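General statements about sequence and structure are easier to judge against a single worked case. For one protein, we set the task of working out the structure tokens from the amino acid sequence alone. The sequence in question and its structure tokens are set out directly beneath this paragraph.
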Amino acid sequence: MVEPGLAERIPRELAPTVHRIVVEALTNIRRHASAAARVEVLVRSGGNEVEVSIINDLSDLAAVEPARLGGLGLPGLTERVEALAGTLRAGPHGDGWRVLATLPLPEPM
């Protein structure tokens, strides 16, 4: 879910990064947690920043593929987010996994 009206407020410079965060997280769910029964994507504003949160559960741990060698997706994405003065964290969350990024929104003119 994208907060109503937020898409119009995200500047062109940030929009591709927001999109890339969501795509990378969903790709990782498909690769590493294909047994997830629930995936939640939320893009919302919090004051002067945009928060991107992707959470999945792992409803059937036995069906999850053994971990593959890590790629460059999350580390590269972290660098991209930090270059825009934001933060990105990924890790265990409840019974699943969460990717959480915050990016500053410019002041309205």
